[in-house]
Every structure is written in structure tokens, then in C-alpha cells.
Amino acid sequence: MNLEYLKSFYMTVKCNSISKAAKALHLTQPGLSMQLRNLEKELGADLLIRSNKGVKLTEEGTVVFDYAHTLLSIQGNIERDLKNLQEDTPKLIIGSCKSVGEYALPCSIYTFKQLHKEVDIHMEVDNTATVIEKLRKHTINIGLIQYDPKADDILTQTIISDQLHLVGNCCDSPKEISIEDLKEIPLILREKDSGTRYLIEKALQEKGISIKDLNVVYDLNSPEAIKSSILSGKGFSFLPKLSIEQELKKGLVQPIKVDDLEISFNYYIASREKYNFTDYEKMFVDFVISSKRGFC
């Protein structure tokens, strides 16, 4: 497949206009149209519906567009990694779930940077599912995630253990509730693709309970936003101990024991199955794993 044609197709869809895409690609409109026709001929399918209002993907075009995004990302990452190897400054590109990336990992990165000042470090914070997706798309080479996906193409190494705590504010929260009580209290949960949400759903399923059985008032994709909601008395939530250690020490939140429900889990270093770490990536992974608690 001609990647130049694929890039032209991708840009046309993003711009929703052949004329705008041609300008962005520094091509003439007839030249771009010819590339699009050649790609359709090569694949044996119509990819675009052209009109005065722009372009629209056909069903086949939607499939090709999704693959184009992945292939062009891989191409860009190959060029980036080769450029990094040719440059004097080594680079680390790390993806992390939020409960690690927003709380524990910055300290470890700072310490590692002090030991290796020559390394340029970039960290992207997402939920676990997105970190795994970025590994697969070669956007990152090291991931820190909240559960093991148990996938053939992803390798994991355990860092540390943690536990999800049900917490409320310090003023009027009970210290212990039953499973039935859990169904009634207002809950604020992480978004569906997050590691925390996955762990909660898995633990409840083992007790024969669905998320639909709970009184979920809203979802948030930020642990900090959830903590703010809890502190202002808007509801209760399950959060990793790692993300609420300071609030627990200061007595700002009240941990609540739920009868016969304990949600323990591990954090993992994740990588692609056949990927070989660079020297500095290997040093960083060893540094995180060998630290006393996995993080400083």
C-alpha cells in the first residue's frame, strides 16, 4: 500500500475538503484527486462520497481511515525513534495511568532525572485502557497501568500492590456499611475505560452486583475532581490508596469498610511483547521496580 496515498486520504477526511487537504499537503487538487482514485483502485473499494459540502466516508472508508490513523502514527513514531537514536540526547516517552502519573511517578521521574541529567523525559497521563492503546500504536514504549490486560501482545511486570478504598468526607460518613447500603449511597465513579472502574466492576461482579444496581450520580475522569466532590459532600467514591494518602493523613476523608468487599490490585510496568528497551528505558524500568515501594 502506498503510504503517501494513505496520508492524502487521511488528510482529506480530517480537512473534510479536497481543496483544503491539497493546500495542506502542497498538492494541486487534480493531483490529490488522482492519489485518492489510485488508493481506491488499489484497495478495490470506494472510500469517499464527494459532494459540494465536502467528503463523507463510506463504510469501507471508515475501516481504512481507522487503519490509516494507526499506520501513520507508527510511521511517525519510527521516524521519531530513529531521529532520537541519531541525536545526542536520549529520550524516555512514558505513558501512565492517572493514579500513578498524577501522584507517585513525578517524584520517581525527578529522582531518575537527577541521576541521569542527559535524558529528556516526557510523560503522558491517561487512563489504563488508553495507555495500553498507545503502547499498541507505538506512541509510547513504557506504560504504567493499574491492571494486567492479560494480552498476548503486552508484557507486564509488577511494581507494587495497592487497594481501592471507599471514602467519604470526614464530617458525616459512616465507618462501615453493608453491601446493600452500598447500593443506596450516592457514588461518584471514574470513567468506563479507567483501571479503577474496571477493578470496581470486576469485584462487584464476583458478588453478583452490577454497576446498574448502584446509585451512581455521575462519572469523572479525574481523581482530583472526584476528591473535590467528596470533600464538598456530593457523594462517595472508590479511590486507590496511593491517590488519597495525603487526605487520609490529614483526616480529610473517611475510609469506609464495606462488608465482605475488598479490592486489592497491582500496578504494572507494561511494554509491547517484542519490543527491546533502549539502555535508558531499561535503566528507568529497573529503577522503578527496584525502588523500595516502586516509587519514591
UniProtKB/TrEMBL annotation:
Q: Which family does it belong to?
A: Belongs to the LysR transcriptional regulatory family.
Descriptive protein name: LysR family transcriptional regulator
Q: Which part of the chain is the HTH lysR-type domain?
A: 1-58
The protein's matches in Gene3D superfamilies, at most eight in alphabetical order, are given as: 3.40.190.290, Winged helix-like DNA-binding domain superfamily/Winged helix DNA-binding domain
Picking any one GO molecular function of the record gives: DNA-binding transcription factor activity
Its organism's taxonomic lineage begins at:
Bacteria, Bacillati, Bacillota, Clostridia, Peptostreptococcales
Q: Which superkingdom does the taxonomy of this entry point to?
A: Bacteria
Name the InterPro entries on file: LysR_HTH_N, LysR_subst-bd, WH-like_DNA-bd_sf, WH_DNA-bd_sf
Q: Does the keyword field hold 4Fe-4S?
A: no
Q: Which Pfam families match?
A: HTH_1 (PF00126), LysR_substrate (PF03466)
